Amino acid sequence: MSTPLVDPFAPFGALLSGFEGLYELERIRRGMFVHATAPRPDVGVTPHVIVHEQDKLKLRYYAPKRDEGLPPVVLVPSLINRAYILDLEADRSMVASLAGMNHPVYLVDWGEPGPEDADEDVAYVVLELLDRAVRRACRHARAPKAAVFGYCMGGTLVAMYAALRPERLLGFTTLNAPVHFAEAGRFREFVSPDVVNVDEVFPAGTLVPTWLMKPVFQMLDPMGSFTKYAAIEEAAADPKKLSRTMARERWLEEHVPCASAFCREFVRHAYQEDALIAGRWSLNGETVRLEDIRSPALIVVCKRDFIAPSRSGLPLFERIQSADKELVEPDAGHIGVVVGATGPRYFFPLLDRWLRRIAKGEPQAPKE
Question: Are 218 and 225 in contact (CB under 8 A)?
Fold first, then answer.
């Protein structure tokens, strides 16, 4: 039988709490202990089947509650985080919500690369892995085209895909997807050319380890650890609230290594050269021009996003030439929009309405 963990700071709790100005420190201490000892809940539990596999990628299919003949919806998360962010909790799950609204949902789970995947570059990810996943979803759903949704870096990849393979798309949505990396905020400062030599930091034939990537994300919000522990201490009084908090913590803790070829190309062309917005990024000889995009588009940027600031995503709406395009700017953060109450209350119904409209070929409502 395992010995229960003992809080080594417990004897000092009363002392710390007794001094004015140290109460918050005591809360952080208690939150750190809860964080270290609280169990992580199960995640990614919505029933599904895997309908396609390639390399480490798995395409997960979530059947609609009722078959309305709606086109497939392919969800594309970031390559460097776990895909279950879109299926974190049953009552706030994006895949469960859309399937419950009768959409056939397909989640691209990029998986965890191994050393054998180290040379997979952006072209391979977009034109091979993503393209095959979209085509497989269409075949499985017996539909000619799919609606594709991209979140964060996944949205950047979807925008590139929309520019190069528009024939596969009924329409596409991006959520907090940077395209103008000169406006990408603090992260761009961390990987600027005078700070990072991509050839040295991401040598060929290797994987970028999680221990290297994790501190960079932590530095985006230097005070975040302190406020996080205080929030965990507060949540500890409510089992449901604590479970929600620890589900999010599990996702934040479970980083994914990345192929050095992908990271080297993405950091250089995106963050250091801002080549996507300039039209100077080519995949296998095909130049990506955002101005070539004419598919129906829903562009979503969150006002309180400090990971991918809205000013880095807004130019996508401005550059694309789609006759049918909408811009939505919810008052939410980068993660909270898909795992918080904003998802089921506002964002998922919004996406449902947009998907149904483009499926029916209905025109965009006139602007007021």
Answer: yes
Taken in order 188, 192, 195, 198, is the CA torsion positive or negative?
Answer: positive
Mean pLDDT by 10 residues, the chain (368 residues): 47 48 76 86 94 98 97 96 94 97 98 96 98 98 98 97 97 97 84 88 91 64 68 88 87 89 96 96 98 97 91 96 96 91 95 96 78
CA-based nearest residue to 159, from 300, 272, 321, 293? 293
Domain that holds residue 236: 57-359
Quick check: is 14 in a domain? no
The domain tally of the chain equals 1
**Spatial separation of the C-alpha atoms in residues 278 and 196, rounded to whole Å:** 21
Phi, psi (deg, nearest 5) at residue 274: 50, 45
Extract the tokens encoding 249: 């913590």
Residue 4 in domain: no
| Phi, psi (deg, nearest 5) at residue 9 | -95, 0
Six-digit token pair at 348?
């998922």
CA distance linking residue 124 with residue 55, whole number of Å:
11
The answer to whether residue 71 is domain-embedded is yes
